[in-house]
Each structure stands twice: as C-alpha cells, then as structure tokens.
Design brief:
The complex is a heterotrimer of chains A (95), B (485) and C (487). Chain A has 95 residues and is mostly helical. In chain A, 36% of the residues lie in helices and 4% in strands. In chain B, 37% of the residues lie in helices and 13% in strands. In chain B, strands 4-6-5-10-11-9-7-8 form an eight-stranded mixed beta sheet, with helices on both faces. In chain B, strands 1-3-2 form a three-stranded mixed beta sheet. The mean pLDDT of chain B is 96. Classes of the chains: A mainly alpha (95), B alpha/beta (485), C alpha+beta (487). The structure holds magnesium ion (MG) and zinc ion. The site of zinc ion (ZN) has 3 residues of chain C, from loops.
C-alpha cells in the first residue's frame, strides 16, 4: 500500500493543516516509510482478540450534578487572539 | 555556593530542615548555575525572580513539616502553571498563560516546592531527542552537540547539569526513561492512573503519565510519593493505596524473581548494551534476587502499534489548537483558511506528521485495519506482561538500544528515530510502571541505562530493586561542565 | 394497532408515492450542570458566562461525567420501553467548527446507553407504533453568531457541553401529522419523566429529519436526505412536504436523488443542499481515551425504574378504565403532564364528567385563544374545581357558570365570591319559582290558551320567560317540573 499525494491532500484537509505540493511530497515519503514499518502488524492474527482502549481496569466514576464553575468569562477570553469582552471572534463563516 | 547544586534532593531537604541552608541560598545556587548554563537551552521560561521571592518568604516563615521545604524545582513545559507561560514546546502555544495549575505541580507546591521555570521539551512531547521543540534543541550536559533524549530532554538535561535538584517529565512512549538513560539520571514512569493528567497538555491520553527525573533513586521515590494522588478531575485517575515510597524504600530484594525477556535482545544492539545488561543481571543476583528467563512474544509489535495509537489520539487531542480560543493565530480569509494556516504555521513538522498519521488511521475505511488492529495488539502485549508476572516480580531490560546520539543525526529518518523507543514503548501500551537507572558508560563515556519494569501499582518494588542496584553499580556521571566558561 | 396510516401520498401521473421519515431528535437533558463539567446550564445567560475551562477546551482539561445526566438518559430509555445497556462507551466525533472548542464532540457511537424501544402514537384512525433505534448521550456545541459583526463570526460557548440525548427513530413515520404526533409524544414522555423540558423555542428539542420517497407498496427504501436541525414542528412538517415533493419530482423527471444533508430555509419554505455525501464529514469516531466505559449495575437501573412516574399511556388507560372517559378525552387530558395534573387536581374533589367537559371545552378554548400553556392558565385548578362543585350542588346553573368563568379570568377569582358579590346564586326554592311561574302565566293568558288547546311546542316559551324573569338564576329543572304541574 502506498499513500499518494491525493491521500495526503485529503488528510491535510481533514486535519485542517494546509499542505503545499512540496510539503505533500515530503509527507508522502515519510508516511510511506512509517506505514511500511507499521505493516508488521499484519503478521499477527487478531480475529479473536478483544481490543484494549484503556489499561485502567476500572469503570467511569460519576460526579454529582452540582454547579461549581462560576462566571470566569474574563479568564476564558483572556488568551483569545482577537480582543473582545464578550465573545470569541473568528473570521466570518461562509455557509 | 555552587556546590549546593551537586547535592541530592534528599540532602538539600535535610540541610534546609537542619537550617544549615536556607531556601534562598539553595534557590540562588540553582539560579546562578542556570544563568551560566543558557547554552544548554534547557529553559523555555525562567521564573527566577519570582522563585527568589518565594524562597525569601519561605525562609521568613519556614514550615519544616513539608516534604519539599523551600526546594526550587523546574518542570517540563507540558505542565500548566497558573500565571506562568506554558508552551508545550510549540509555537502554537507560544503566548499561552494558563489561569490554572496542573494537579501534579499543585501537589509539589503544596509540599513547599518553588517553581524555578519551565523546561524545554519536544513539541507536544513528540520526539526522542528534544529536537522538535519550537524553542530549539537542548544540549546534553554529557557532551557537546549531543541530544539529551526526549521528549523530556530539558528536564533530564537540567538534572544532569545540576540546574534543578529534581524535576518532572511526562512519558508517553519513553519520554522520561529514554532521556534519563541518555543523561545518566534516574527516571520513573508510574503506572497509568497513578498521577493525575489534569492540567498536563495532552499528547496521547491513554498513554501519558507524569513522573519524576532525579539524581538518585531515593529522590525519585520521594517525589513520586508527592505527585501521585487520586484526582476526581481525571476520569482515568485510579484510587489505590499509595505508599510512602521513600520511607518504605529498602535495598533488601532477596528472593525477588526478576524476569529477563529474550525478545529484548534485538538485532544490531551495541555490544556494550548487551554487556551492561549482563552486568545488571549479575548485580541483582548479587543482591539475592533470582533470575528467571521469560518471553514477551509480542514485543516487536509494540512500536508499530504505538505509532498508530499515539498519533490517532494526538490527532484528536491537538484539534483544540485552532487559533480560536488561545495561542497562535494566522490571518485567514475565512474560518477554514484561518484554521489551515494557523495549524500549518503553528505546528512543527514532526507534530504535523503525527497528526497526519493519526488522521489517516482513524479515517473512514482504515479504522479497522489500523486503529482497531493496534488496540488488539495492545491487548496481546498486555497479556504478555500478565503472563510474565505470574512467574516474576519485575523485569529487567536495557532502557534504550543505544546511547545518546549527535544532534541532527536522526532528524531526517523518522523511523530510525522512532526505533529509539523500542524498549520503553511496550510499558506504556501495557500501562505499567518502569524505572530507568544509569548503569554504566559506553566507550565514548556516554551513560547507558537499565530499565526495571514492574507490575501495575507496584512502584515500591521497582524502586527497591533500583535502589539495591544503584548501590552495587555506584554509577558516576562524567560531566565536565564544558559549557560553563 | 394499525401498521400503516399513510393517507399522505403524493400522486404524479399514474404513480403514487409514499413518504418514509425517520427522526433524530436532540433533547436537552434537564440538569443543573453540564454533561462533563460543573458549569451551569441555565438558559439565556450573558454570552460566555457559563463556560468553564473544560467547556472551552483549555490545554490539559479533562471531562468528568455527570451522574444525573446518566440517570436522566436511562429514565428516558425506560419511558421509551427501550433496552438499557449496562455498558456503553463515549466516542469522539472529530470535526472542526468555530463553536466546537475541542475539535471533537463527545458522543456515543458504537455502544449507546439505550438501545431499541417503541413509542405509541394516537392517530385519528387508530394507534401506530414507531420504533426507536437508540438513544445516546452527547455534548451540545456552542453558538456561532453571524449577524452581529459584518466581518466576523462571534462565538458564545454557554451551551458548549450541555448534555443532549439524541433519540433516533426507525424510518417508521409516513406523514407530517405522524411526525407532529411523534414529537409531541416524545416531548410528553420526557416531560412526565422530568428528563427534558421540551422547550422548542429555547432549543431544548430539535430534530434532524430524514426523508425519502418510494412508490407505494414498494419495500425498498429510497435514497434519503437529512434535513438538519429543525426546531419547530410546523417547520418540520413544511420541510417534509417540500422535500418529499422535490424528491418525487426528481424521480418523475428520471433524475437521481443524491444522498445529502440539507437545510430548511424558513423564509423561502424550501430545503437547500448543505453538503453532498462525497464531501460529507469523515468524523473519525474512536473511543474517548479520557473516559472509561460507562458501566451501570442492575441495581442502579432498578432504583431508577422504581422512580418512574405513571406515563401518558398508562395514565390514559387508567382514565378510561377508572373514570370512564372516552379514549379521545383521555388522550387529550394525558398528552401534557401539566394538563393531566390540572385534571387530577380537580377531580380529587369534583365531578369527573363536568371536569372533563370544562377543561377540554371552556378552558382549552381560552388557552388556545390566548396562546397560553396550562401551567400559565388564568384560572387555577383549585378555582375551576370550586366552580364545578357550584354547578354540581345546584348553587348555579351551567349557563351562569359560563358567565362566572369569564369573570374568574380576571386574576383567578374565587367563583364563590363572584356568586356572592353579583348575587348569581341559583334560585332553587320551589315557592319562589312557583310565584315566578304564576306571574308568567298571568302575564300571558293568550299563550296559555293556545298551549292548552294542544300547541305543546309553547312549553319552551314558558321556560324561557320564567328564566328571563329570574334573570337566569332559576333552577331549570324546577321550572320544568312546576310548569308541567301548573299548565
Ligand atoms: Mg444527525
Ligand atoms: Zn447528535
């Protein structure tokens, strides 16, 4: 299996990272060598193996329904790149 | 006053408690040495003047009941620190100042620790040489132009170079143990769920763990007992009986069964490492432990599985860095354009590479072949360890397949860089605790480490084994202070 | 139980099409705090004042699940007679949007908390069963505001992280009326349970509507289009109507229908393509590594079951069996929890038949007229109950009661007081009525003669006159009885 430039462009779109042709070529090369190495997993038969997503052998703890967080708007907006007292600001979204 | 920086954490604590040293003297000592060591590029953010103030106020009103009475500590820049810039080694967080504190660092300050500054690391902890940091690579104090390992390279270099008495790093695939091994220091990756992940910039959530890097095993045990707490703010934090590791530390490991996995004898491993391992086996035998040959048959599949699981989680964890709420933003014509430029300019190439891998393996049509497959392999790897622990109490392996390499040596070959983590990654996939201790030097005089892997939540046991071995090995780091003029 | 209720068919030439509809309803869970953070869910707060570090996805922030939201989802599942899954998993649904701070929504994909269930609809020509595919818990997104700033979009994260239940139906619905009834029934069940307030204006209930068409009688499902995020029943019906006809037109023209996501434009009353299947999102779902699987015990579920109130279907059955209401009356009275409470409060002390008539008649007319919910009724159950009792014990006539009812609306007045103040008490003293009738007889000798000569229709005239003389207060039954004797 090889990852072509079209695939690179597709995943760059999905991951919202712009990629020009030169970068795409470099990435395709890197990814192909990495997937060549990952291919080793195909040696293993895993049909009857349960997937392991977390090693923590416990179940989800539930928290009580209490409002603890207060109005921290200033803190929340403090680091935002565009100055505004009330909102996060992004370039206009065109639907 | 520069000799304070050569003292271990344990000695410093004792000196402060006995009023032989003040917090200010100690803090000043580490700051002075740090100032002279800028060339190592260990710090991303220095918080020196504030540290000195805190030291003074500690001295004015000392509390000697604390476990870290007025001890200055620099931490990896992956821990969010209230009011102090936190970058994760990335341009995308270059201007980010958290208004909150990670649980692990909060635990340290609660015991009297004082923040010295934020230490350099690979960008978002993705790297094995600290060369992916936006803030430049870190120099290993061992030798010029040598990488300190990664991703906690700044932390390991700061310990080896005596710039902080103790530090914390994070370990997703070896990021504490590998740099510890490269710098002749001690590094512990605790059991998954032992230390809270709250407030740590996430790389791969199911693998990330914070842990100490120190000059010796006792210091490591002391910090571990401080940072390991159950935390309701982290749903993967685990409630278990946490021990006073430093108090219960013993070099008596008589009768312990130590497993030697044959799969860790990899092709092309330098002879020196082989020999070191053999020596290590002798040491534990001399301590009265029993050696058992074991097999971890899926070891060779750990790294490929890791390079699916970790990037997959990372691709999602790093989606929040989009230029909207905080951090770097590039101008864009519209929202999507802004996203794409921000992320393309804000992330370095290794991070972009891993986001791409992760996006690909999760994308429609590939999930089963990659992500699901990797999760199944992960299960097999965990089963290997479970089986082994029916026969042994701990496992002894080399920490890394080589000693530290030169800066730039592996940057153009991602796979050869990834191979560095071949001995450390299986431990993360299985969620186990493991410690790397310096065990010898190679022909170039570069340190080499041995790794002791424990059962889940059995940190005390591997600390004890490390403690016993440390005594026998009597390792001395050869550091010439070459960078200080 | 009828399987098919489709009087809603579209004819073109010789072809008759039926419409197949499935709904994905997003119901906001009633809870004080958000699904994974402890910030408030109160509606209408100042922008970004109910946002925690977790909701705004700051580095290192982690989700911790709200137990109450889990209980609410399970209770709703019980109300939908659905399978409760003891083990469920939270997944990340990855996509970028300005009001999605994490860059992913935490949702449940492969293993939802609730599995298959059913909802019974009361349609004019019988009952219809609609299958529920699943119910899962997920986070709501924030709000993007496009019309406050000409260059920029503004983002308010107050709603970010609020718990939603996504309830997915099977494609069992066939008409816009069934959709309306289905939504109302879901809303009713959740309001009985207290798991969702069902307030569509505030966005607590919204739906994605999946529409396809096929030749009537065909088994095969047609290509469907999903109309996103419609937040009123009227708009859902309009959108379905437009979309079904659009699809039929395409088929008749020999064109194919693209599977796509569409928007309903309220102003133009039409649906519009948002994105086709080809550039559909690739959400890259995977289990959220920050959250472990959610496991609940049998005991946990059992306790919740014990806590489930009587639901509309059971209540309806009880009203019919115990109170002898007609199915129609019972359906109306149980459809909304507040109406049923109102009814039950009245019948605790008053006549059932009268209560039914007054609520479904006079009261509903007023509420409809004034566009009010029963919870905002100008007349309380307590006072309507009193009015009914005044009728029942003969203090007032039904006719006077209507006058009093009008007067009660002004500040929920006590009917007893109105009767006293205005002297509207019914005249039930036979002596007084006799005197009244004597007056009518003496005043109309001609009519009496005619009556006696066989013109029996005039009886009504005398009743009317007697009523008139009493200003409507005389007991009509007594007038009848005494008149018969006297004439
Ligand atoms: Mg939908
Ligand atoms: Zn949804």
């Amino acid at each position: 299996m090889t990852i072509d430039l079209k695939t690179i462009k597709h995943i760059s779109k999905l991951s919202r990272i712009s990629v020009d042709d030169e970068k795409a070529k470099k990435l395709a090369g890197d990814l192909n060598s990495i997937f060549e190495f990952i291919k080793k997993l195909n040696e293993l038969k895993t049909d009857n193996v349960e997937p392991l997503t977390s090693v923590a052998e416990t179940t989800l703890k539930l928290r009580p329904d209490e409002v603890k967080s207060k109005n921290i708007r200033e803190q929340i907006l403090k680091n935002s790149p565009e100055e505004n007292e009330d909102f996060f600001v992004v370039p206009r979204v065109i639907e | 006053m520069s000799e304070v920086t050569t003292l271990s954490l344990t000695d410093l604590v004792q000196n402060i408690k006995e009023k032989k040293l003040s917090s200010h003297e100690v803090t000043k000592g580490f700051i002075d040495r740090s100032e002279k060591s800028k060339i190592l590029n260990t710090y991303i953010t220095e918080d020196f003047s504030s540290a000195l103030e805190k030291a003074k106020s500690f001295d004015n009103k000392p509390n000697f009941d604390l476990k870290l009475p007025g001890i200055p500590i620099a931490v990896k820049d992956l821990f969010c620190t209230n009011g102090v810039k936190t970058t994760a080694g990335s341009k995308i967080l270059n201007n980010f100042i958290p208004t909150y504190e990670s649980t692990v660092t909060k635990n340290i300050w609660n015991e009297g620790g004082i923040l010295l500054g934020k230490l350099n690391c690979d960008e978002f902890a993705m790297g094995s040489s600290n060369e992916t940091s936006f803030f430049g690579n870190v120099q290993n104090p061992i030798d010029k132009n040598l990488v300190p390992g990664g991703s906690s390279g700044g932390s390991a270099a700061a310990i080896a170079g005596n710039l902080t008495p103790i530090t914390i790093g994070t370990d997703t695939g070896g990021s504490i143990r590998q740099p510890a091994s490269f710098t002749g220091t001690v590094g512990l990756k605790p059991t998954y769920g032992s230390c809270s992940r709250y407030g740590i910039v996430a790389f791969a959530s199911s693998l990330d763990q914070a842990g100490p890097i120190s000059k010796n095993v006792k210091d490591c045990a002391l910090l571990q007992e401080i940072i390991s707490t159950y935390d309701a703010k982290d749903s993967t934090s685990i409630e278990f009986k946490r021990k006073s590791y430093s108090k219960e530390l013993t070099n008596n490991i008589k009768g312990k069964k130590i497993g030697i996995p044959k799969e860790y004898r990899v092709d092309g491993m330098p002879k020196e490492i082989e020999e070191l391992w053999t020596k290590g086996i002798e040491y534990v035998k001399n301590c009265g432990a029993q050696i058992v040959d074991i097999s971890l048959p899926h070891t060779n599949y750990a790294l490929p599985a890791y390079y699916i699981v970790a990037p997959a989680e990372a691709s999602s964890n790093l989606a929040r860095y989009d230029g909207v709420k905080y951090g770097f933003r590039s101008k864009g014509e519209n929202l999507i354009d802004m996203y794409e430029k921000t992320r393309s300019e804000g992330f370095g190439s290794e991070v972009q590479r891993r986001i791409m891998i992760g996006t690909y393996v999760l994308s429609s049509g590939y999930y089963d072949a990659y992500y699901l497959k990797a999760q199944k392999v992960r299960k097999l790897i965990k089963n290997d360890f479970d089986d082994a622990y029916k026969k042994v109490d701990a496992i002894l392996t080399p920490s890394t397949p080589s000693s530290a390499f030169k800066i730039g040596e592996k940057t153009n070959d991602p796979v050869s860089m990834y191979l560095n983590d071949i001995f450390t990654v299986p431990v993360n996939l299985a969620g186990l605790p493991a410690i790397s201790i310096p065990a010898g030097l190679d022909a170039k005089g570069y340190p080499l480490g041995l790794q002791i892997i424990g059962k889940a939540f059995d940190e005390q046991n591997i600390l004890n084994i490390a403690y016993a071995m440390e005594e026998k090995i009597a390792f001395k780091n050869k550091i010439t202070d070459w960078w200080i003029k | 139980m009828i399987k098919d209720n489709s009087e809603y068919l579209i004819s073109r030439g010789s072809n008759t099409y039926e419409v197949v509809i499935g709904l994905e309803v997003h119901a906001q869970v009633t809870s004080k705090s958000k699904l994974f953070s402890s910030s408030s869910t109160t509606f209408g707060a100042e922008p970004n004042t109910q946002v925690s570090l977790v909701d705004a996805a700051f580095p290192g922030m982690l989700p911790v699940i709200n137990e109450f939201c889990v209980k609410q989802a399970i209770k709703t599942g019980i109300g939908l007679k659905a399978q409760i899954n003891k083990r469920s998993v939270f997944d990340r649904k990855n996509y970028f949007y300005a009001d999605l701070p994490q860059g992913y929504q935490i949702s449940q994909f492969k293993y939802p908390i609730v599995g298959e269930g059913t909802v019974i609809l009361d349609m004019p020509n019988g009952q219809k069963e609609v299958g529920i595919e699943r119910l899962h818990l997920e986070q709501d997104a924030g709000k993007s505001i496009h019309d406050m700033d000409p260059q920029n979009t503004l983002v308010d994260l107050n709603r970010s992280g609020v718990a939603l239940m996504e309830i997915v139906s099977k494609p069992d619905l066939r008409t816009p009326d069934e959709v309306s009834t289905y939504i109302k029934k879901l809303r009713s069940i959740m309001r009985y349970l207290g798991t969702c307030d069902g307030n569509m204006q505030e966005g607590s209930l919204r739906a994605d509507v999946n529409v396809s068409v096929r030749i009537k009688g065909s088994e095969k499902l047609g290509t469907r289009c999903e109309i996103k995020n419609v937040n009123s029943i009227k708009f859902m019906q309009m959108a379905i109507n437009y979309e079904a006809n659009r699809q039929v037109d395409l088929i008749e023209e020999g064109k194919t229908i693209n599977q796509e996501t569409r928007l309903f434009d309220i102003k133009k009353n039409e649906t519009r393509s948002m994105r086709s299947k080809e550039d559909a999102h690739d959400y890259r779902y995977f289990p959220d590594p920050d959250l472990l699987p959610l496991e609940v015990t049998d005991d946990f579920i059992k306790k919740l079951k014990a806590d489930i109130p009587e639901l509309p279907d059971d209540k309806k059955k009880r009203f019919i069996d115990k109170f002898k209401l007609s199915p129609y009356e019972a359906t109306i009275l149980v459809s909304d929890i507040d109406t049923s409470k109102y009814f039950e409060e009245i019948i605790a002390n008053s006549d059932i038949k009268l209560a039914t008539n007054w609520i479904t008649g006079e009261l509903f007319a007023v509420l409809n007229d004034k566009n009010l919910e029963i919870s905002d009724s100008p007349i309380s159950a307590k006072n309507l109950s009193k009015l009914i009792n005044l009728i029942k014990d003969g203090t007032i006539s039904g006719k006077i009661a209507k006058t009093i009812f009008e007067l009660m609306m002004d500040g929920d007045k006590d009917p007893q007081k109105i009767v006293e103040e205005k002297g509207l008490k019914q005249e039930s003293d036979p002596k007084a009525i006799e005197a009244l009738i004597d007056k009518v007889i003496t005043d109309n000798p001609e009519k009496v003669k005619e009556y006696k000569s066989g013109k029996e229709k005039l009886f009504g005239f005398f009743v009317g006159q007697a009523m008139k003389v009493s200003s409507g207060k005389a007991n009509p039954q007594l007038i009848n009885d005494i008149l018969k004797k006297k004439l």
